[in-house]
Amino acid sequence: MTNERALRLKTIAAQWLVAVAVSLSLLLALARALGGLDVDTAASRAAILLKDAGGTDKVIEEADRLLDKFRPEHPDWLSAFDLQDFPALKNLGGRVAIREDSPTRVQILIPGHSQGYSINVYDKDATTKHKRRPDERELVDSRLFVTR
Fold first, then answer.
1. To which H or E segment does residue 69 belong?
2. What is the DSSP secondary structure assignment for residue 73, as one 8-state letter?
3. What is the per-residue burial (b if ≥16 Cβ within 10 Å, else e) of 49-58?
4. Could you give the C-alpha distances from 96 to 1, 15, 103, 107, in angstroms and in order?
5. SS3 of 13, please?
6. Predicted pLDDT of residue 34
7. Residues 37, 115: contact at Cβ < 8 Å?
8. Contact assessment for residue 56 and residue 50, using Cβ atoms and an 8 Å cutoff
9. pLDDT number for residue 48
10. What is the pLDDT of residues 14-62, one digit of tens each?
11. Domain locations in the chain as residue ranges
């Protein structure tokens, strides 16, 4: 095989790989747009989950106790063992973490590829209040938010 032919085959292969990558990216974006969960629907689903777990007051109370128990030293993601004294948080069915953002929050990730979302309970003792982002809905005054 000549060098010129080998170079041409490599060029065609590279172009093909780029075309496949672009196509996959477009398909994923289209799938998210068509089947993805908007923040209002996520907030509605979260409200149902929160009610079934004991209500927003119970979830906020447990998040406050969780912060008191594990702060300042805490694992990134809390295990089922860590959550044994926090049944409402555990019953939400997601992974739970303490995030040291500003302000500190308990984050519960509700799984689902294009249907997933986060429930965030912000620290009651925070010196700064959380400012709502466009991809969030506030469920309880400055404390509990749903993020898509």
1. helix 56-70
2. S
3. bbeebbebeb
4. 58, 43, 17, 6
5. helix
6. 54
7. yes
8. yes
9. 92
10. 788 777 777 777 666 665 555 567 888 889 989 999 999 999 999 999 9
11. 1-35, 39-147
Q: Which two tokens stand for residue 128?
A: 């700064």
Please give the structure tokens belonging to residue 3.
């060098």
The answer to whether the beta carbons of residues 124 and 144 sit under 8 Å apart is no
Q: What CA–CA distance (Å, rounded) separates 103 from 67?
A: 12
Q: What percent of the chain has pLDDT over 70?
A: 88
Q: CA 126 → CA 31, 97, 131, distances in Å?
A: 38, 17, 12
- Please identify which residue in the block is written with the tokens 């209040």: 129
DSSP category for residue 78: E
The pTM of this model reads 0.71
Please name every residue paired with 122 in a beta bridge, in sequence order, or none if there are none. Answer: 105
